[in-house]
Amino acid sequence: KWVNREISNFDYLIQLNTMAGRTYNDLAQYPVFPWILRDYTSEELDLNNPAVFRDLSKPIGVVNEKNAKTVKEKYISFFRYENFEDPLGMIDKFHYGTHYSNAAGVMHYLIRVEPFTTLHIQLQSGRFDCADRQFHSIPATWQALMDNPNDVKELIPEFFYFPEFLENQNGFNLGQLQMSKEVVNDVVLPKWAHSPEDFIYKHRKALESEYVSAHLHEWIDLIFGYKQRGPAAVEALNVFY
What we know:
Neurobeachin, Chain: A, domain 1; mainly alpha
């Protein structure tokens, strides 16, 4: 059905997540969706320009080519590089010591919405985490991924249908950023999005674009397919602890 364009990219990804055992009922196996754009700074979003899209054939940790060298070195000089203790020699080498989808990442994105707010506070020993580490800006989150090969969070489905998670409708005191002293409130959007609803509309449109339809299978190979393990995963720089 997907190949014949009878179901949308969104529906296909939801079904793949379900078949893979991912579910909204388990934060540790929450549905995972890809970052699909790389342009969060332009005034207008041109979906006819391939340059605005993320390279879906690469894991998010090496979408920025500069990170690939670091990631390869980590794999080769595994224990020395990471000061990693494995006295029994039981742990296989890996490119990334964290994961593209985990419970903390889900709470990170959904911090403004209950019950995730309370779960986040419980995780942080009874208080909100430091403001600078919170999800406060979509452009800044993307930039952090580009700068740091150890940050490999992909997205959650809410980025394509749920504008409310981008607003601090409950008025939580999320603190202020250390450098700019800016108070963390609603999530800062890309320049091309005029409201949370506009962001969701354009982001969903991007997901269903011709470019993503033609390349989505490359990301699926990494997350759900043959590049998850073995030689293909090593070659694709896609081995996780």
